[in-house]
Amino acid sequence: DGNAAAAATAAAAAATKDAAKLPLKVAIGPQRARQVMSFEERVMVSDDPNRPSLTVFEHVEGSRVCDGLFPVYQLPNGKQAYMYYRGGDLLDEVAVDMVAPPPRPSTVPAALQQTMPLADVLNLISKPPGSAPPFIPYKPVPYLVPLPPRHTLPVKRPASRTPADFGDLREDNLQLVLVAKKIVKTQQSTRVEAVEAAAEREPWSLPMSIFKPRAKECDAKAFFDTDASEDRMFERDWARAIAKEKFLGMLCRENKSCKSSPKEDQEMLAETYAVLKQYYKQWYAAFMFYAGTGSGSDPYHMPLNSFTQFLDDCCIADSESQFIKRSDCDTIFIVCNFQPDKKSAEAAVNLENALMRYEFLEALCRAGLAKYGKGIATDDVATAVRMLLEENVVPNLPPAAAVVSNKFREERLYNEEVDLLYKRHAVMLKAIYSRYRLKPAGGGLRTKVMRLEGWSMLMHDARMIDPQFTLQDGVLAFLWSRMMTIDEIKDYHKYTSFTFVDFLEALARLADTKSLPLELELEAAGYNNILEWAIDKERMEGMAATLGDKAAD
C-alpha cells in the first residue's frame, strides 16, 4: 500500500501538470455561478483556510487507496481521476423572485395608498416552501458595499479610511460671489393694423355631429326615442300579448264577472289598452332595469329572481291576500312565460324561463287583477290594472328603474364639446369598436355590430369594473344606450346589439358614472378634499348595503 500511495502522489503531480495543458472547469452541484472550479495555467495562492478548494488526482490502475472513498470521474482527455472538494464556509444561494406589483388602483383611497402594500418576499426567505421542523433555513445577510479606495468629498480626516470618516464632511465657510450685470432698458413700439373679421362659423347642430348616423339607423329615424316610435312599440307588444288565447280568455272572463258596470269585451280591452299605454314609459323602464340586473346571462329577458325582486320593491306580493301570495306570483310568471307553439318565431328567441316585454305586460294585468280585482277593490279590469300601476309600481320603483334614456342624451350627450372630443379620437374609437365585434359563441363570422359580450370584454380589458362601476352598471349602460326597437322578436338581432353611435353613448354613460366631483362641488357639499368625499362615499355605501341586508332578513 505504501508503494500505491507513492504512485498516487506521482499521478496527482502528473495530473496537475496535464491540467496546465488542458484547461478544466468543474461545476459543484447544485450549479451556481460561484460554484465552478477552474483549472487553468494561472495559479492562485491563498492562505485563507475558509476558501473552497478542489483537488484532482489521476487514478492509477490497480491502486486501492481510494476505493470506497471517492467516485471515479472520466476527464475530457479520457483519463480517470478522483476529486476531493473542501467547501469551506461557502453557503448556498437563495433565489429571491421579483415582487409582483400591487394591482392598479381604481378608487381614490387605493390611489392615495393609505397603507403599505403586502409583500411575501420575507416570508419566502424566512420559511422556504417545503420546509418543515426541525429544519431551520439559513437567513442570508447581505454584505455591505466595500469602502472606496479614496475620499471624493472634503472630509475632516482625509488620511483615515474608517467607515465613520466617510461622510464626516469638513465645515468650510460659505463663500459668496457677487456679479454685477448691467441692465439695459428697451422700448417696444406697437403698430395697429386693420384685420378683417373672420367669417362667422356655422352654429353646431346634431345633423353635422358624429351622432349623425343615428337618425338613419334607429327605428325612430331621429336622434331621440320619439312618441310615435314608442306608440308603435306598445301596439306591437299589446297585439302580441292579446294574441295569446289564454290571456285574452282570462280578461274576458274577468270582464263578464263584473256585475256593477258590465261592459263589452272590446270596450274593456280598449280601456285596459289605454291604461297600459299611459304608463308605458314607466313599466318599460322597469322591465329594462330588472331584466338587466337579473342573475341570468341574457339581459333582454326578465328571469324569475328579477321578477320576484320587482314584486318586492313594488310591494305587490301579499302573504295575507287570497290571490297574490308569493306562490300565486310564481304561478303568474309560469303562465305568462308559457309558449303553446314551440316552433313559432316567438319561441325561437324567447327563453322558456324568462319574460319578454309583451309577457311582462301580461304579468302586470294578471297581478293587478289578483291584487285589486275579483271584487277585492273593484270588479273592473282596467281599474284594477290602473290601481296596480298608480299605487304600487310607479311610486315604489327605485331611481335606476325609472331612467329615461332621452334625458341623458338631451342633458349630457348631445353637445358640441362631446362631439369635438369624439371627432378628435374617432379613428381610435372606431378601431376599438371593430376589435370587440366578436364572433358568435356558436361559431361563424364576426357581426357588423357590437353585442353585450364584446362590451363586457372591453370593460374587463380596460379595467373599468371596480366597486364604483360594477359589471351590472356596465350592462345597464349597454341597455340604456340602445335606441328603441319596435319589434323585439322580428328584429331580435338589432334588439340585442348596438351601433357605433350607441357605443359612443355607452362610453359617455360610463365616464359620467366614474367621474369625480369638481372642486366647487366639493366645497358646496362641505368637503375639504377629494379624499374626504371618497371615504364618506364608501362609508355611506357600506351603511346602505348593511341596511339592505337587515331589511332582507
Radius of gyration: 42 Å
The quaternary organization reads as single chain
How many angstroms separate the termini?
A: 93 Å
Largest sheet geometry: 3 strands, antiparallel
Widest β-sheet, arrangement of strands: 3-5-4
Question: Residue-averaged pLDDT, rounded?
Answer: 81
What do you see in this structure?
The protein is mainly α and 553 residues long. The protein contains 22 helices and nine strands. The chain has helices at residues 2-21, 108-112, 121-126, 214-217, 227-242, 245-256, 265-278, 280-292, 304-313, 326-336, 345-349, 357-372, 381-396, 405-413, 416-424, 426-435, 452-461, 471-481, 492-495, 500-514, 519-525, 530-552; strands at residues 24-27, 36-39, 53-58, 73-74, 80-86, 302-303, 354-355, 450-451, 497-498. Strands 3-5-4 form a three-stranded antiparallel β-sheet. A two-stranded antiparallel ribbon has the order 1-2. The protein has a two-stranded antiparallel ribbon with strand order 6-7. Helix 17 (452-461) packs across helix 18 and helix 18 (471-481) packs across helix 20. The longest helix has 23 residues, at 530-552. The model is unreliable at 1-9 (pLDDT under 50).
Lay out the secondary structure.
Blueprint: H1 2-21, E1 24-27, E2 36-39, E3 53-58, E4 73-74, E5 80-86, H2 108-112, H3 121-126, H4 214-217, H5 227-242, H6 245-256, H7 265-278, H8 280-292, E6 302-303, H9 304-313, H10 326-336, H11 345-349, E7 354-355, H12 357-372, H13 381-396, H14 405-413, H15 416-424, H16 426-435, E8 450-451, H17 452-461, H18 471-481, H19 492-495, E9 497-498, H20 500-514, H21 519-525, H22 530-552
Antiparallel strand pairs: 1-2, 3-5, 4-5, 6-7, 8-9
